[in-house]
Amino acid sequence: MPRKSIRDKILNVFYAFIFCILAFYFVAPVAVSILASVYPHNNLIAVPINLDAKDITYVNYWEIFQPGAAGAYYPIPTGAQYFLPAFINTLIISIASTVGCLVLSSLSAYPLARLNIRGGQNFANFYLFIRMVPYWAIVIPLYILYLRYGLFDTIIGLIFIFIAFITPFDIFILKGYFETIPSELEDAARVDGCTRLGALARIILPLSIPGLMAVSIFTFVLTWCDFGIPLIFGSENARMLTVVISLFATRTQIEYGAMNAAAVAFIVPVLIIAIVFQRYIVSGLTRGALKG
Amino acid sequence: MNFVGLQNYLDLFTIEDFLLILRNTAIFASSTVGLTLLLSLGIALYINQKLKVFSSLIKSLILLPWAVPGVVNAMIWGYVLNGRFGILNWILKYQLGVINEYIQFLADPVWAFASVVFVFVWKEIPFAVLLLVAGLTTIPVDLYEAAKVDGANVWVRFRHITLPLMKTSIAIVAVLQTMFSLDVFDVIYILTRGGPVHGTSVISYQIYEQSFKFLDFGHGTAFAFVLTLLILVTSLTYIKTLWK
Question: Which residue of B has its CA nearest to A240?
């Protein structure tokens, strides 16, 4: 049927066209950032912008990873001197929060999914409802509490906040995930003399590795990318990367080159995680989340 | 510390631009939720077409905005939209020749608001798409086949099969998205600081400004309660209308 094939061809062109638009939409800002990170500041603020290929330089990256090494380009200190300590802080906080969330949420999602607790569903909804309360609505009482108990501006304090904020969401996903695992497997283990905890550790957890992966990636990325929490609770000793990046913009003159280099250095780890674990993110997250 | 009763709440109404801030919050939330839902539903349907190369590529590319932290996203766009040397202005004037004067994307109230909405939506789309794609894959293919046999065209199939079966997913995305957009902070903090003249100021930003910039915790908390109330009302409405 020739008519059908013409229609298919038009449809294919249409799909390709949509694809180009979408690809441009998603990639363009990141591409701009990468491009801007290899030009000196003066080229970037020239009107019209000066994209001369012979001006390409790595000086911005030097400034980020070895503050002061690119002295001629950056006579005034930028926010870059805080970059490396903040990178380490962020790494510690993200990993610790991920581990904490994983332990807490798997231990509390299991009874919600398996034991027929009276009002168990209400508990689950309650968790979700807690997650609905926005961070900015409870930041002030938290701030006062933290000042009083000496947790303000400490790494451990930040870890506590992140765990408290992300765990409800993790419980919601994991509960859905645990429910997709047939309970016969667990019953068999129980008959053979396994305790509840033993069944959780030996049967449920190994079977829900995709779900656990999704949850940990999500927790890690949420912690890594958050801005509101570290801005208030990590002002100096526990400064995180997002706060350092925002420092580039609070100077009277914004160092666009260094800022973009920092942005690229910031995106790359998350991007690698996202690409490597793409399968888990999509399947693990959605299998659990959409069940309820 | 003195007990002031309801004074902090009454003060809200005398604070300059309180109604403007409320209006901004409402417009921001509704426009970002609407735009995100529409765009991500479109993209999800596109991915669900299962075109060999395109769909899987988009599925990977979509993780890009997700991996970009909100702050970095706002900073990049701040450079792109800059009114003196921004790339977008450069493209519009020197490459396309559409404009004669640089547009002040972040200094003009209307443009600034549109920019903030646009930048926020860019970051929010991937998560919504992931949830919607998962919802789409749970729809049995037989339904579409049967509808095709009965002579239903694309629109009818979408309207009477996809939409009803996607109701839960759409409700989840709408609720989460409303919450995210009422909780917006980094984009506004980096791009406009609530300016020009409260043009892009929303409640969540006001909580920050009142309590941590002006160190006025009383008014900050009053704003926080307004925000909580707003979220409570909207989520209850969603649950009533969509979650049945």
Answer: B71
